[in-house]
Amino acid sequence: MKTDIRSEKGFTLVELAVVMIIIGLLIGGVLKGQELIKSAKVTSTISQVKGIDAATSTFQDIYAGLPGDVASPGTRLPGCTAAPCVPAAVVSNGRVIATDAAIPFINGSRDTESAAFFVQLAAADLISGVTPDASVNAFGGNYPAAPVGGGWVASTISTQADVPGASGSGITDFRAGLYLQHQNTADDDEDPVSSALTMQRIDRKIDDGNPLTGSVYAAEETATACMGDNGSSAASNLYDTSTGTVSCLALVRIQN
């Protein structure tokens, strides 16, 4: 009687090592790809800010006023016949005013200079990505969406006390001017969207990397957001990038 002997063959250590290397390369490639995508979004967002700045300067050269604040927009801009392109009241004082001048980035109304800012830039054919809507504020509507998420709202900040969020008192070199605020929703001026790491990247590429100096500020919603202790000392003027859960409001000055 013969015994049926079958030889069983498994993977060798070399084969297992090759498989592990391939898996490692795949994981590394995915992670690297995700990092490249994030970096590309940051770069695109920075280009967008610079583009808005340049468009604003061009608008001023053509119309002798800031978008949203220019006199008689209904007769000077093509297709600009009603709100939000034509604000309910235009002051034409060199400032872009929101619903409440003392709280620059509350944008519930669609009849303000702030709501007209991007719509007028689009009417002048200086930016894209804006579709005027008299019934609702939204990114991609009256305001442009940002590649890193959320979008931009524009308004003039005249005093340091008017800086949104909790970090305004810590700014050491505040200058009045026209600011872009990056936020999560168009009607909530203290709704953060950028991670601290994303904000740090934007700040370093545009400005000095310090959340409380220069032309880019981290406008915090609470004292513990963005920075560990609200920037109460020089050593703490750093973005809290230890976790991915900290969200910041970006505040960028584009015109003095």
Query: What portion of residues is helical?
Result: 25-40%
- List the secondary-structure elements in sequence, H or E: HHHEEEHEE
Please describe the biggest sheet, giving its number of strands, its sense, and whether it closes into a barrel. Answer: 5 strands, antiparallel
Mean pLDDT figure: 83
- How many domains? The number is 1
Please provide a written account of the structure:
This protein has helices at 13-63, 73-76, 113-123, 196-206, and strands at 151-157, 177-183, 194-195, 216-219, 247-255. It is an alpha+beta fold and 256 residues long. Strands 1, 2, 3, 4 and 5 form a five-stranded antiparallel β-sheet that branches. α1 (13-63) packs across α4 (196-206). It is elongated and about 85 Å long. The N and C termini lie far apart (99 Å).
Task: Describe the SSE topology.
Layout: H1 13-63, H2 73-76, H3 113-123, E1 151-157, E2 177-183, E3 194-195, H4 196-206, E4 216-219, E5 247-255
Antiparallel strand pairs: 1-2, 2-5, 3-5, 4-5
What attributes does this structure have?
256 residues; alpha+beta; five-stranded antiparallel β-sheet; 4 helices; 5 strands; 30% helix
Question: Quick recap of the structure?
Answer:
The chain has helices spanning 13-63, 73-76, 113-123, 196-206, and strands spanning 151-157, 177-183, 194-195, 216-219, 247-255. The chain is an alpha+beta fold and 256 residues long. It has one domain (38-255).
